[in-house]
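Appendix B, example 12.
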Amino acid sequence: MELIDEFEAVRPRLLSLAHRILGSHEDAEDAVQTAWLRALGTDPARIDNPAAWLTTVTSRLCLDRLRARERRGELPLLADALPAEQLAADEEFLRREDVSRALLVLLHRLSAAQRVAFVLHDLFRLPFAEIALVLDTSPANAKMLASRARRRLDGVGSAPAPDVSATEAHRRIVEAFLEAARGGRLDTLVALLAPDVVRTADRALLPADGKPDMIGHRAVAEETRLFAQRIRASVLMLLGDEVGAVIAPGGHPLAVIRFEIHQGLIARFRIATVRRSDLSRMRPLGEPAPSASRPAPENL
């Protein structure tokens, strides 16, 4: 098979891999294209296994980009720092590829090496010997990086476990609220909100004529329907020890929604711009997104 045929065959997988490492469809495209250009400039006789070679080169390019961000002191790619066109492209790719929105949000918690080790091993099943080549380290250290990443994604040690019964009850209410908001179901929204519910929001997240505070279940429900598109890009998450939601278009955190629930109704909720400290306090809720792709223990 010609090299170009090999590349076209593995390109979708390379793009998926690069996207999960970099969190950006545009950056992933650039990394895969650069890998292809390097292949063209390499003696074919030196490439025994084109698919493996391209995977290694693409992964190294992604690692270099992540480390360059760290050296420049760049913060994770949050939605409010990205152009609308990129967010739209990332959102489209996320939906088309059926990528876990929760996982992409949580991956922001990892260092460059941890993110690469986790993605390559837990999501793409590469052995640690190959991951070690990408990270320029030993297989044992690559395994340790993936293990640390897994613990950070699961939120191990980040906060005490919340009360299970209270969490489940709150989860059902919050989940029903988000589903009703996504579907624009006004009567359901009104039924889930306390009559004197209070909604507060950061001004940066509102239109120019938006009110930072709103009171009353019908007024709040009417307004919530206007933000259905943003809420469609939300995912349930534990925010500290409380059930909340993260709005993350294209997998880039934009805002957190925190709820106060009394007697089975939402009494207050606040929509706030994501802060860096929020990222470290987020934990998966229910079925952790990362574990869905975790290999069997014997492969560890």
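The domain at 3-154 is CATH 1.20.140.160 (Butyryl-CoA Dehydrogenase, subunit A; domain 3). DSSP finds 13 helices and seven strands in the chain.
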